[in-house]
TrEMBL record:
The keyword 4Fe-4S does not apply. Keywords: Magnesium, Metal-binding, Methyltransferase, Transferase. GO terms for molecular function: metal ion binding; methyltransferase activity. GO terms for biological process: methylation. This is S-adenosyl-L-methionine-dependent methyltransferase superfamily protein.
């Protein structure tokens, strides 16, 4: 199995979820434009947790049905404050935003309604990604674990 995770044992680090803060910024932009109410943004929660490899292995061992055959943590360095921005950034944003949209759109619709979807994904988020993606250094991790049924 391959799951998003974090490198640090400390769950309070933002290393794996920096993009969530970008959604928060996008929602705040929609508040300033009058599309979303501030109280709705304040009450919105994205129920995601990015575990460390140690946490995943602990749960697998506690559950007891599987044996860990192989494990790998793949560090993903998304940006290193690049000086030169690639020419095809529109395509990069589209792919990245569509991946997160597949996960978050149902949550957003159930909390805010359909009216924010297009402004958020078509206008607000691409601007935020363009402003931050290549300018800030951040990383995340994917955890790969091969299991065998006991």
């Amino acid at each position: 199995m391959i799951i998003p995770g974090r490198l640090s044992a400390d769950p309070s680090t933002e290393e794996s979820a920096v993009w969530i803060s970008w959604y928060e910024e996008g929602l705040q932009d929609l508040v300033s434009e009058g599309i979303v109410k501030a109280s709705d943004v304040d009450s919105f929660n994205i129920p995601l947790y990015f575990p460390s490899m140690a946490e995943v292995k602990s749960i697998i061992n506690m559950e007891g049905s599987f044996e860990v055959i192989k494990e790998d943590v793949y560090e993903i360095l998304y940006s290193d404050g690049l000086d030169a921005i690639p020419a095809d950034t529109d395509k990069i944003w589209e792919k990245i935003i569509n991946i997160s949209r597949a996960v978050l759109e149902p949550l957003l619709i159930s909390h805010f309604g359909n009216s924010i979807i297009e402004p958020l994904f078509s206008s607000t988020l691409p601007k935020i990604y363009a402003k931050k993606f290549f300018k800030e250094k951040y990383k995340s991790a994917n955890l790969a674990i091969s299991l065998k049924k006991k």
